[in-house]
Structures are given as C-alpha cells and as structure tokens.
Amino acid sequence: MDFKKILFKTSSIDVEKALPDALIFINKDGKIQWVNDIAAEIFETSKMHLMTSKISDFIENAMNLISNAVIMNKPVISKLLDKEFYYDMTVREIDEGYVLDFRETVQHSVKTQEEPDVSVINREKNNFLLKLSNDLKSPIQSIVGFSQAMSDGLGGAMTEQQEKYVRIINKNSVELMYFIGKLLELSQTESVLKQPEKKTADALALVQSVVKYNEQLYKDKDVRITVKQEENYKKTITTDHVILKNILQDLFEVILKSVDMGEIIITLSTPDDSEVEQRGLKEGSYTKFSIASSALLLSDNDLECMFDPYRIVDTTNRKNVLRAMVLASVKNLVQSLNGIVWVESQILKSTSFNVIIPEG
Fold first, then answer.
1. N or C end of the chain: which has fewer CB within 10 A?
2. Which of 256, 171, 244, 254 is nearest to 215 (CA)?
3. What is the CATH number of domain 3-114?
4. C-beta of residue 66 within 8 angstroms of C-beta of residue 100
5. Each residue of 94-120: b (16+ CB within 10 Å) or e?
C-alpha cells in the first residue's frame, strides 16, 4: 500500500504544512499502519513499535475522539496516556482508515488545558443521529415490508425452506426497527428538550389510555392489568400530558416485553412528605405512579446500570442494553418534568417502576 498516496488525498489535512507535525495512518480498528519520524519522537518510542500497536495504546479515549473529530469536521484535543501532554488532533477519514495529524497545543499542562465540552459533543452526535433517522429507518422498513409481502405470498410460491428464511428475516428486521427507534428516542431525549407544555389533565384517564393502547399485546400474553388509585389521591394534575404518556408507555413496554403471564398493577397515589424528602425533591405537591409486576423478578445483577446504556454494554448485562436505552429515555423525560424515577425489586415477590412528578 502506498502511504504517500493515501496522505496526499486527505483534503482536510495540508500534508505539505503538516510535515513538521506527527502523522499517523491507522486502519478502521485503530491499528497503526504507518508513522513519520515526528510521531515516534512525541510518543517516545520507535516507529517499529508504533506499527505493532494500536492508537489507543498511546492516546486516551482515542477512537471516540477520532469519531468526534470526523462528525464535527474540526480538530479535537487529545492527551497522551499517563503524560500531561496535549495535542490538537486533525482527522481525515478515507476508505483505508484514518489519517491523524498531531500538532502540539499552546497550553498543554493539565492545569491550563481547556477540556473539550463533552455535553456539546454528545449533543452534536445526537443531532447527527436524528438528522439521519430517515436514512436509518427507510432501508429497514423496506426489508420489513417486502419480507412480510413475501410471507403473504405476494411474490409467488416459495419452498418450505424459503418461507422459513423469510420469516426469520422479517422477525429480525422488525426487532432491528424497534431497536433503532429506541436509539433515536434516546438521542431525542438527550438533545435540548423543549419546555414542557403544562396543561391540566386527568391522571387516571392518561393511565387508562396507555393500558387501552397495549390491550392486544397483554391479552395475547395472558397478562392481567389492574389500575388502582389511593383514597387520598387527587385525580387532576398540571403537567405535559404528552411527555407523561410517553413515560408510562415506555415503562409499560419494558414490563410487557419481559413477562408472558401474571398481573401488572398500576397505582396512582400522593407520596407523603418523608418519601418526597427521601428522594431529594423539593417541598410541594406530587403524584406517584407505580407499575408493578409479580412476574418480573430482577436480581441485584439485573439492576446494575439499569438506566445507563453506555455503561451496561461493558458489563455481563450487555443483553439488556435495549431495556437500558428505554429506561434512560424515561429518566430524561422524567427529569424534564422535574421528577424522579427508580426501580424496586423484592426477591421472589415483584418488581415495580416508580415515578414521582410535580402536580403543577
């Protein structure tokens, strides 16, 4: 592979001006393929050693920084592992991988270095995903539609084996569509949310509308639904009823996707002052929604990172990343209403998701 040709086709890096800088070419997995002499100097090792290593062996959070630099199309600040040296890193993505240009920043001590604004980076990435939502959904929707049409016989007769494969394609594409939808929903809730549009709403009616919406699903699963409200509970609340319905719907889905039978009990109540204080909320009037299932039994291990999809992927609970994405969205929506959400699980008894939000 001719690395000089690769370097000279990187339009975002002026190679002639970059020659005094450290230049590194890596593949898509982060494996270093080529370096110049300056790179060996700043990393204080030999070129041979560099070319048997990965960029993450030398730069903190390397692949995430590279991804951010590509998305934002501007240099990012990188830091050497175990050393207080910082460099402006310009990244150019090409078919073969990435070309990295390191230029020492004016300020490189940990005390004076301005850290990149993580919140801005996350918002940019979320907006990037949302802008590509149609590009992500359209191909999957086509697969779902055409595979369903083939299963219905619109494409002509198929063999038994072909029908089996088409059903598998349809099932997996439907699941992928749901996953992408929840990923985009999480990105939406992590972006700058509009101010809640507060209106007076009947809380019981909101709950019953969510139950009605899921009627076919819980009946197919032989799940019974009970809605209760405590005697001292005030029926009407002033809140954003659209956001509240999304919260209840997501929590309902989390339980319904995890159980095949049993009872789900939804309780509306007014939390007492001690519970409000215990949850770190200010004094005021609140409504509490509890959605409990005796069929959903969770261990302490299941509860780990339950609302944090970014951490759960690095744990033994990785299989629950979709549930964590949904619950992270719920948490963001509840916080937009100045409320709090948590889960409680009693071994061999039940699991309940609880939400407390202000009434006005």
1. N
2. 256
3. 3.30.450.20
4. yes
5. eeebbbbbbeebeebeeeebeeeeeee
Which portions of the chain are predicted below pLDDT 70?
A: 1-20, 105-123, 192-194, 348
* Strand partners for 80: 59
- pLDDT tens for 51-110 read 889 998 899 888 888 988 887 788 888 888 877 778 888 998 888 889 998 887 644 444
Amino acid at position 85, single letter: F
Instruction: Output b/e per residue, 40-53; b: 16+ Cβ within 10 A.
Output: bebbeeeeeebeeb
Query: 3-class SS at 39?
Result: helix
Closest CA to 84 of 110, 103, 105: 110
What strands, in cross-sheet order, belong to the sheet with 22-26? 32-35, 22-26, 97-104, 86-94, 76-79
pLDDT tens track for 248-288:
999 999 998 888 888 899 999 988 888 888 888 888 888 99
Say if residues 265 and 292 touch (Cβ distance below 8 Å).
Answer: yes
pLDDT number for residue 244: 92
CATH fold of 199-358 reads Heat Shock Protein 90 (3.30.565)
**Among candidate residues 37, 56, 59, 58, the one with its CA nearest the CA of residue 48:** 37
* C-alpha separations of 226 from 23, 120, 150 in Å: 64, 43, 40
14 CB-near residues (< 8 Å, 6+ apart): none
Task: Round to whole Å and give the CA distance between 244 and 206.
Answer: 8
Q: Are 321 and 313 in contact (CB under 8 A)?
A: yes
Query: Per the confidence metrics, is the pTM higher than 0.85?
Result: no
Cβ atoms of 297 and 348 closer than 8 Å: yes
Look up residue 180 and give its amino acid: I
CA angle 15, 20, 26 (to 5 degrees): 60
Block residue for tokens 């207080």: 84
